Amino acid sequence: REGFFDGIKRDRWVWSGDAYQSARINTYLFADPEIVKRTAVGLAGRLPVECHLNTIIDYTLLWIIGLYEFYMTYGDKEFLNRIYPMINAYIEFCEKRLNKDGFLEGIEGDWTFIDWSPIDKTGAVCAKQILLCAAYDKLSLIDEVLGVNDRGYKEKSRSLLKKINDLYWDSEKGAFIDSFASGKRNVTRHANIFAIMYDLVTPEQTESITKNVLFNDNVKEINDLSKYSFITNIFPNIIEVEDTEEKGLRCGPASGGSKMIPVQVLAVRYLPGAVPSCPAFCRQGNPVRRRQAR
């Protein structure tokens, strides 16, 4: 109960991306804010920031996004204020590593992960830019909560989103491609899922992604290589947003075994008093409530 540890018999370590998902599931299972706070603080470490969380670029961004979602779930402004200096340190670290196009691209020592599934990781990967865009957006909202003067993060989010649409949106494929640098125009689910999840697409794009990616069997499933895929547990959020919950039952182990109903879908369907508890479900800006005690 110290924190959200992954690979308890192997890694015995806190991985930021896994902790991000654990914090969401924790809302339904335990509604325990303290374990989320301990995990977030443990991941943050101490100043100065010299590498990404777990050396993984996307994990740093998910940590920032997760802290705003934590506030939206539990309303703990005191903790948000306490960890605010570390949030600033990590976003400043990220911005020092932007390339000439303003994109976040891995350099020596960085791990561009996203997921275990095969992704075209040539140059600046789209999924990372989507996460950076979402992190900027959440930072602007954190500043509002804490009464900090506008530091331009909302505008940075808008500007980055425009560049993402200009360079990564493929109108012919009706989806975001992984990389424009390779010329392969490869489409995977990851960037497209994140774009809907963090409300960074238009209704037209959402419809296009739903048709051409989410429920397109020609687009490689996110968990083909392993029974565990990092992003598999995020997919039900998109199902809820898209109001096509029944199709969420397709999620599950790809390599044999019975189909698995995602825990977040179960929470919405079967837990009395269960309430969507993060912006992915209820759209940004709407109040978020904890599940009532049973």
Written description of the protein model:
With 294 residues, this protein is an all-alpha fold. It has 11 helices and 2 strands. It has helices at residues 16-29, 33-44, 57-74, 77-96, 126-146, 153-168, 189-197, 203-214, 235-242, 263-270, 279-282, and strands at 169-170, 175-176. A two-stranded antiparallel sheet has the order 1-2. The chain is globular. 41% of the residues are buried. The model is unreliable at 224-230 and 243-294 (pLDDT under 50).
How would you describe this structure in keywords?
single chain, two-stranded antiparallel ribbon, 2 strands, 1% strand, globular
Q: What's the average pLDDT? A: 79
Distance between the termini: 22 Å
Segments where pLDDT lies below 50 for 5+ residues?
224-230, 243-294
Helix fraction by DSSP (H/I, runs of at least 4): 40-55%
Backbone structural class: mainly alpha
What does the radius of gyration come to?
18 Å
In a few lines, what is going on in this structure?
This protein has helices at residues 16-29, 33-44, 57-74, 77-96, 126-146, 153-168, 189-197, 203-214, 235-242, 263-270, 279-282, and strands spanning 169-170, 175-176.
Blueprint of the fold:
Blueprint: H1 16-29, H2 33-44, H3 57-74, H4 77-96, H5 126-146, H6 153-168, E1 169-170, E2 175-176, H7 189-197, H8 203-214, H9 235-242, H10 263-270, H11 279-282
Antiparallel strand pairs: 1-2
Helix pairs in contact: 1-2, 1-3, 3-4, 3-5, 4-5, 5-6, 5-7, 7-8
